[in-house]
Amino acid sequence: MTEILPVLHGEQLTSPAAFHEPLHVASEGDQWWRSSVIYQVYPRSFRDSDGDGVGDLRGITAELQGLAELSIDAIWLSPFYTSPQRDGGYDVADYCDVDPLFGTLADFDALVARADGLGIRVIVDLVPNHCSSEHVLFQTALAAPAGSSERGMFVFRDGTGPDGTEPPNNWQSHFGGPAWTRTLDPDGTPGQWYLHLFDSSQPDFDWDNPAVHAEFERVLRFWLDRGVGGFRVDVAHALIKAEGLPDWGGRADGGSMEGFPGSEAPMFGQDAVHTIYRRWRSILAEYDGERILCAEASIDPLPRLADWVRADEMHQAFNFAYLHNPWNAHGLRSVISSSLAAFDTVGAPTTWVLSNHDVVRHTSRFGLTDGAPRGGDGIGSTDPQPDTAVGLARARAASLAMFALPGGIYLYQGEELGLPDHTSMPDDARQDPTFLRTNGERLGRDGCRVPLPWRAHAASSGFAGSGDTAGTPWLPQPEGWAGYARDLQAEDPGSTLALYRTALQLRRDLRLGAGSLRWSRDFERTDVVAFRNGELMVVLNMGEFAAALPEGTIVATSMSGVVQDGLLAPDACVWLMIRAGQG
User: Fold this and answer.
1) Which of 270, 476, 560, 582 sits at 20 to 30 Å (Cα–Cα) from 193?
2) Does 509 participate in catalysis according to the annotation?
C-alpha cells in the first residue's frame, strides 16, 4: 500500500488549493535579462571540430541550433582568450584575442553572427581580478624595479621578517597554499612578493591604480564593439582589497565561519568595488541591445548580495545560496523566499542555478548520502558514490521546479542530458590546479568538466572530430558516457533532453520568468515545496512518502509515472494548471 505524506495535521489535501499572499509580484520590466535563460558553454569540453581533443569556437557554432531548441536567450562562454591554460583559461595572457586552441577572432565573429541569427546573445567571461603571469603587463612588471609604475599594476609588497623572508600577510590561495610568491631580482637575489588569490600563475591586479581601470575599460569596449551581449564577471567581489592588507583568520574563499563572518574578509566585498561596476554599467549603456553584467560574487548574507544589482550596477548576480542548498524542502523554501525578498528591495531579478564548471553536477550532488563531499572539491573513486538513479530523479525534479521560478536561470552545458560527474577519474588525468597545489588532498573540479557526449556510436561519443580525425579528449570520459549521448536522447520522448526542451518552451510561453510567486498553505509544514506562478502550480516532493495533489491539469512531470491515483511520488515534481481564481 502506498504511503501518503501527511498534510494539514494528518488529513489529505483537499481541493481547491490555498495560497498565501504573493511573496513576489509579476515583473513590470520587459528587459530580456529579467527572465532570461542563459546556457553556460565551457569551450574546452563542448564540441571539438578539428579532432585535437579540445573543444573550440567552430564546434560551438556548429551546435547552436540545438541550443536554440532549448528556448535559451543567451550563451555564456567561459574564457577562450590567449592563455597558457594553467587554470582552464582563467589565467588570461591577452584579453583581446582568441587562443589558437579555440580558433581565431574570425571564428568568434562567425559564432556571434550565427547566434544572432538564432536570436541568441553571446555573453563572455571577463576575468578582472587577475591575469596570467605570462601577460605582457606582468612580465614588464617583473622586469621593472620596486616602486615603478609597471609594478603598480599588480599587488607587489616587500616581505616581513628578517630580510623579508616571510610573506606580507597570512592570506591563503583558493587553490591551496600561500597567496603570495616571492620574485627574484635581475641579479638573482630574492625580491618582492606578489599577491595571487588563486594559482601562483595568476597575479592579482591592483585596482587601487587608475591605470588598471583604464585597461579594463579598453577590454570592455573591444568586445562590446564585436557585438557581445554582456559579461559574466569572474570573482567580481575580489577586485578591491582592504587598506593595509590585514591578516585574515577565516576561510581562504571568504565564506563565513564561526568567528570570521564573510562580510569582514579583507580581500572580498569591499565597498569601493561598487564604483567600478557603476562605471562599467554606464559604458554598457552607451551600446544598444540591453548588454548586461552578471557578477560571480560569493557574498553572504543575501541582502548584501542585493547591493550588487542595484539599478546602476550589475544586472544579475549568481545566487550561490540557492545552488548550494541540499535536498531539503525547508531550506529550499527559505532560500527562495530570502532571495526574492532581498532582490525585490532593489528592483532586480534573482538568478537560479544548480550546476556550473566549479561544482559537482547536481545529478551527482543530489545522489550523495549525507556527509559525502560536496561543492567544488569533487568526488573520487574512494569517496562514497552517488546513487545514480536517485540523483537523476532528484536532478530532473529540481530542474523542473527551478524552471517555474520568476527571475533568470543559468544552465550548465550537459545538464540537459542529465550528466553526472566523473567520479572515478584517475589521478594522473586530473589537471585542476587545486589538485596539483594540494598534492591531491583536494580533487578539484575536473569531474564536472568532462567533454560532452554527442553521438553514442562514435569515438569519444562524438566529441572530438570523427573518423580518422577523431582525437583523444583532453579529459577522459567515464564508462557509460555514450548512454547519455545527445543523439539518443533527441529520439527519446522520456529523456532528460526532452524534459528540458518541453519545460523551457513552456516557461517561455507562460512567461514564468516574469511571473509571480505565492506559497501553498497546504504544504508549508511538509517535505513538499509547492508554489503558484500565475495559473501554474508547482509541486516538488522532497520527502520519503507520496504526496496527495490538488485538482489541476498536469502539463509537465519530472519523469513519466511519478503521478498515480492523484499522488506524487518522492523525488519528483509536477506542474499543474489550476482554475482561474482558485486559491
Assistant:
1) 270
2) no
Whole-model pTM above 0.90? yes
pLDDT digits (tens, 9 = 90+) for 230-278: 999 999 999 999 999 999 999 998 888 888 998 899 999 999 999 999 9
Catalytic member of 286, 288, 479, 565: 286
Closest CA to 17 of 517, 515, 548, 403: 548
Among the options 48, 63, 107, 234, which is catalytic?
234
Question: Cα torsion at 254, 256, 261, 265 (round to 10°)?
Answer: 0
Integer angstrom CA distances of residue 65 from 69, 192, 353, 436, 486: 7, 51, 23, 38, 13
Instruction: Note the pLDDT tens digit of each residue in 162-212.
Output: 889 999 999 999 988 999 999 999 888 999 999 999 999 999 999 999 999
DSSP characters over 178-209: BSEEEEE-TTSSEEEEEE-SS-TTSPBB-TTS
* SS3 annotation, 423-475: CCCCHHHCCCHHHHHCCCCCCCCHHHCCCCCCCCCCHHHHCECCHHHCCCCCC
Q: Residue 574: which H helix or E strand, with range?
A: strand 572-577
CB 128, CB 234: distance < 8 Å: yes
**For the segment 394-445, what is each residue's pLDDT rounded down to a tens digit?**
999 999 999 999 999 999 999 999 999 999 999 999 999 889 888 888 899 9
DSSP 101-154: TT--HHHHHHHHHHHHHTT-EEEEEE--SB--TTSHHHHHHHHSPTT-TTGGGB
C-alpha cell belonging to residue 20: 498565501
**What is the structure's pLDDT at 503?**
98
Alpha-carbon distance of 6 to 44, in angstroms, equals 48
By CB atoms closer than 10 A (0-12, 13-18, 19+), residue 493 is exposed
Three-state DSSP class for residue 172: strand
For residue range 60-107, what is the model confidence (pLDDT) as tens digits?
A: 999 999 999 999 999 999 999 999 999 999 999 999 999 999 999 999
286 catalytic residue (yes or no): yes
Q: Write down how long the chain is.
A: 583
- Give the whole-angstrom CA distance, residue 245 versus residue 66: 48
Q: Does a cis peptide bond (omega within 30 degrees of 0) precede residue 570?
A: no
The separation between the first and the last C-alpha atoms of the chain, rounded to the nearest angstrom, is: 31
* Cα–Cα nearest to 537, from 126, 15, 2, 1: 15
Tell the burial category of 546 from Cβ atoms under 10 Å away from its Cβ (0-12, 13-18, 19+): buried
